[in-house]
Amino acid sequence: MSRLHGLRQPPAVLAVRGAALALALAGVGHTLWEGVAEPGHALAFCLLIAVGEPARRGSLPGEREPAPLGAAGALGYALLGRSGGEPTTHGILQVIVVVVVAQLVAAAHRPARGLDLDRPARRVLSVLFAAVCFQPLYNSGEVVRRFGEGPYFALFLLLLLVLTALCDAVLAALLARSRTRHPYGPLLRDELRGLFGIGSAVCATGAVLALGVAAAGLWALPVVCVPLLLTQVSFRRYAAVRATYGQTIASLARSTEVAGYTPHGHARRVAGLATAVGRELGLSGAQLTVLEYAALMHDIGQLSLVEPVADGATATLPAVEQRRIALLGGAVVRQTGVDPEVAVVVERQADPYREQPLSARIVRTANAYDDLCGEGVSGPLGALERLRLGTGHDHQPQVVEALARVLARDGLTPVRGG
Q1: Residue 86: DSSP 8-state
Q2: Residue 217 carries which DSSP code?
């Protein structure tokens, strides 16, 4: 039964994958019936996409576009109307076939268990959007009549690519919502923020690929792809530095556990709860990063204590002692070189909630919940009731109810109350 449950997919995921599969089958059938138009161009772009797709293997968790060269090549082929000054005749369905075949070639040497089907499905649907918007208009001559072949035509391509990127962001947020059940709005904002990074490089390269091949033929492909390859290498290095930075913070957070001041896994549990509550309340991007780091390091001030707090449960201490530990923790965080906003959250986690920033309110409530559960106060529901009793001074009611919804969504406790 557990294996069957693992095979079940949310309806949105099945719909996206089913639509991509239907398009792939329709494209293959059409190509077999009509033949391949301009096979040299189809092969060149297929190889370009296939070469770009294996970049996924070195991608880091949460990376917005792990295969930018593959994405740019697919978009460039979808927006290709001329090659070396001569009109092309490939259609929408052949674009889909080239993208699908390239992804199959790239995935041929990967184990089936390691395949991520959501990204290829999104790629197919996003490229379909671009091709449907461009190919009929260009082949009918409407685009040339309205925009000519100069700068206005380039702006038209960029506009189509921006719309395509928005379409892909909507799909990505929809798939993430169906899998995680996090609120859709913050997930969509995260995806849209990603468009200003590697997404803008992908869109620009896709447009330049189409324009370059239109003017110079297939010789433009290797020349145009070099800048994106350099961008990808730089982005990977930056992402690796960020990942190492996060691992360093996680190691610092574990110092209180190693020293015996807090229970095993406490910092990680609080960080997980705080991040989920932050998403529930609409935080995203850099705000969630600050919240996660502050939650991981919220107890580091206990290292300054002569005697450990019983079970590390600072939520049960007097308010004065909680504030003293929080201030000590903030001072330690400032010495580590972490973002000063993290130190502010750590310092203010013990203040009355009306005086706290939202991130500090979330950390305080998530920490108190984990501490109370550790005391065995009738389980998660009993801990939530204790938090609700403290909403007059210690905990913001909206944060407590967001925590209740997160726990209910994870199947840990029913939601009761406001």
Answers
A1: E
A2: G
Classify 1 as helix, strand or coil: coil
pTM: 0.72
Report d(CA 183, CA 173) in Å as an integer: 9
What mean pLDDT comes out for the span 190-212?
82
The amino acid at residue 315 is A
3-state helix/strand/coil string of 292-306: HHHHHCCCHHHHHCC
Which own/partner contact pairs does 36-42 have at CB distance under 8 Å and 24+ positions apart? Answer: 36/94, 37/88, 37/89, 37/90, 37/91, 37/94, 38/83, 38/88, 38/89, 38/90, 40/218, 41/77, 41/80, 41/83, 41/88, 41/90, 41/213, 41/218, 42/90, 42/94, 42/98
Q: What is the pLDDT of residues 331-354, one digit of tens each?
A: 888 887 777 888 888 888 888 888
Question: At a CB cut-off of 8 Å and minimum separation 6, what does 260 contact?
Answer: 308
Paired tokens of 58: 């070195």
Region of residue 217 (left: phi > 0; alpha: psi -120 to 50; beta: else) = left
Report the alpha-carbon distance of residue 145 to residue 164 in Å, rounded. Answer: 23
Report helix angle 319-335 to 340-348, nearest 10: 170
User: What pLDDT is attached to residue 97?
Assistant: 94
Token code pair at residue 201: 């490089």
d(CA 333, CA 303): 12
Q: How far apart are the first and last CA of the chain?
A: 36
- Please, which pLDDT band fits residue 416 given cuts at 50, 70 and 90? very low
Q: In sequence order, what are the beta bridge partners of 83?
A: 86
* Contact between 277 and 358 (Cβ < 8 Å): no
Gap between the Cα atoms of 316 and 322, Å rounded: 9
H-type alpha helices, 79-150 = 92-107, 118-139, 142-147
